Amino acid sequence: MQDISNILDQIRQQYIAEIPSRIEVIESLILQLSNPEKFQSLFEELFRTVHSLKGSAGMHNLHILGTISHYFENQLTPIGTLNSATSTQINNLLQYTDILSQATDLIINDENDFSLVEKNLAKLTSSDNKEIIKILMVETSKTIINIAEQVFADHPVKITLCHNGYDALKILLIEHYDLLITNTEAPILNGIALITALKHAQDRKHMTLSMLLTSKETQSPNKRHSDSDFTVLKNKQFIENFSLNAENAIETINNKTTKNEP
Q: What is the DSSP letter of 131?
């Protein structure tokens, strides 16, 4: 029985000795996530590595590493839907590797007071746990969809895609979204008709903001109830205009949320 205990202890110590090299691999993968050509394969390898670290940490009763890896996974998951990671996302992920290293140093030195590590983790996760902004996007162009994903990448948003205005309206009448982004040429129910129908159907207090993507100015000089809240012209400055309006929409949504808090 003593021999088995010694063997298990040796396996545990070998595992602990290998953790720093695992963290180095994780850091290397994170730093390469800005490469769109290799992003998917790099992300999948990164997620597997973090997931494996979480599972093996539990097997060796190193629960602090499992907890850190759990929150690490939560931050990785939404990034997997993108084509590349932004510098802000990369820096955020690297903060988790820093905390993993802090915990590992304590474990290697046979210390069990992880209070400072837990404090740093709580501080990091509290800044991450912002309320998710829900966006419904009616768009078929992969280029515009990719632009939207990049523009909103630094914000806590979830983008749901819909391929025609009619289906979007059915969804919006059942479920609340913070922002609707629709193209003027949306199939079945065009963007203007969709926004008009939505604004007439919704309660003003819980109104979904709307952003219209259009190739020409369609709004009247005098603001009407049925007009979109934000209009983005599809011209040479489309990305710049889209980014500016997206930031304004996010700010408006956040201000509205703050006002509605008890």
A: P
Q: Read off the pTM.
A: 0.53
Q: Where are the domains of the chain?
A: 2-128, 133-260
User: Is residue 252 exposed (0-12), middle (13-18) or buried (19+ Cβ within 10 Å)?
Assistant: middle
Kindly state the tokens that stand for 249: 């929409």
Residue-averaged pLDDT of the chain = 86
The domain made up of 2-128 is a member of CATH 3.30.43.10:
no
Amino acid in the structure at residue 185:
E
Which stretch of 58-72, 107-121, 245-259 has the lowest confidence by average pLDDT?
A: 245-259
Structure tokens at 185: 């040429």
Q: Is the CB of residue 209 less than 8 Å from the CB of residue 178?
A: yes
Residue with tokens 């097997």: 59
Instruction: Classify residue 149 by burial, with Cβ atoms within 10 Å: 0-12, 13-18, 19+.
Output: middle
Q: How far is 53 from 68, CA to CA, in rounded Å?
A: 10
* Partner residues linked to 159 by β-bridges: 135
Instruction: Report helix, strand or coil for 138.
Output: strand
Give mean pLDDT, residues 186-206. Answer: 84
Q: The domain 133-260 belongs to what CATH superfamily?
A: Response regulator (3.40.50.2300)
User: Closest by alpha carbon to 116, among 129, 128, 101, 131?
Assistant: 101
Asked if 186 contacts 224 with a C-beta cutoff of 8 angstroms, the reply is no
